[in-house]
Specification:
Elements: E1 2-3, H1 4-9, H2 12-29, E2 31-35, H3 41-55, H4 59-63, E3 76-78, H5 85-90, E4 103-104, E5 107-111, H6 132-157, E6 177-183, E7 186-187, H7 188-192, E8 196-197, E9 199-202, E10 208-213, E11 219-222, E12 230-232, E13 241-245, H8 247-252, E14 262-264, E15 277-278, E16 281-288, H9 316-324
Parallel strand pairs: 1-2, 4-8
Antiparallel strand pairs: 2-13, 3-5, 5-6, 6-16, 7-15, 9-14, 10-13, 10-16, 11-12, 11-14
């Protein structure tokens, strides 16, 4: 557990130790839990209230703002099964061929920054969900600040010059995305047939992901000490922020910091059941992403003394478009 306030408000010694713990935790596990991030429990509760309110809308009201699929950044509503995580992510870092038509049992709403005129957001009509847009735009800014603080701490943890990471995730050109997720209730048998999962093992595309989750459970990360197996990540406190390394950060560090492989499976207590219902689950994710024109090739600090770059030098937008195209 990392206390971010130790980095933001602590002594030089406290700052250094928190930054080192963050770096080591992400390198070793691919994810960490963070508290002391400045987001109060009442704010987190409010985000989940809006999450539930959105997904209670009638199907037609959500369909009006449906994301069309394809390679453009996700905006608006994606219906259950619209995004295929098994194709998207196994064709990426996992480099495996998918022969089965596997499905995801989740729906989500995505928004980008308020000032993104290239890929504008899709909002439900104000009369249908009053104040939703205003709240979500404010929540986006809050998550943006926390993500920047975490990346600043990583710069210190890796002994990089200020701005090595943060200059590539600027407020002015922010390309990050904020996502509300809903996993509808589903029969245990449907999951155990092996063709549907809440979300299949995958890597996130951005730099880091910040996640709040409810108490239902099911989130798992690969156990790097026993590859191919997964460990549960419980929600012991509603303000715990799960932070995982994503593909862009792996590329920037030339593979020193590997992206965290994760999935959402059956909650604890249902793994050995042959029948029953998996309760609905809600979570909230902020995908911190590189500015579209920034390179997602390795940083110079990670390709020295004969170390060769493992990844090509392309822009963040080019990389994400290549990856997203296979998801639909």
């Amino acid at each position: 557990m990392i206390n971010l306030s130790s980095f933001m408000k602590g002594s030089d010694k406290d700052r250094g130790q928190a930054a080192l713990d963050l770096r080591n935790g992400l390198v070793e596990h691919g994810f960490v839990k963070i508290v002391g991030h400045g987001i109060e429990e009442i704010q987190v509760s409010k985000i989940f209230e809006w999450n539930k309110a959105f997904f209670k809308l009638k199907g037609g009201d959500k369909a009006v703002i449906a994301h069309p699929g394809g390679s453009e950044p996700q905006r608006g509503w994606s219906a259950v099964g619209a995004e295929n995580s098994s194709k998207l992510y196994r064709k990426g870092l996992l480099k495996s061929h998918i022969t089965d038509e596997l499905k995801d049992a989740r729906e989500h709403f995505d928004q980008g920054p308020k000032n993104d005129l290239q890929y504008p957001n899709r909002w439900p009509q104000e009369i249908i969900l009053p104040d939703f847009r205003d709240f979500m735009e404010g929540a986006f800014k809050t998550m943006e600040i926390v993500a920047s603080q975490i990346m600043e701490a990583l710069e210190v943890g890796f002994q990089l010059p200020p701005g090595a990471f943060t200059s590539r995730i600027t407020k002015e050109h922010n390309s990050s995305e904020f996502r509300l997720l809903h996993y509808p209730a589903i029969d245990v048998q449907e999951i155990k047939r092996g063709r549907v999962s809440r979300i299949w093992p995958h890597f996130d595309l951005g730099v880091i992901t910040l996640l709040f989750q409810d108490s239902v459970g099911g989130l798992e990360f690969e156990n790097r000490r026993r590859p191919g197996t997964f460990i549960r990540v419980s929600c012991d406190n509603p303000i715990e922020l799960v932070v995982n390394a994503s593909e862009t950060l792996q590329r920037w560090t030339n593979g020193v910091l590997q992206a965290g492989l994760h999935r959402v499976s059956l909650p604890e207590g249902l793994e050995d059941k042959s029948s029953g219902v998996v309760p609905e689950r809600y979570s909230v994710a902020y995908f911190c992403k590189a500015d579209r024109g920034s390179s997602v090739g390795p940083l110079g600090q990670f390709v020295h003394d004969g170390v060769e770059p493992k990844y090509e030098d392309i822009t963040a937008l080019e990389y994400h478009q290549q990856r997203l195209q296979s998801a639909y």
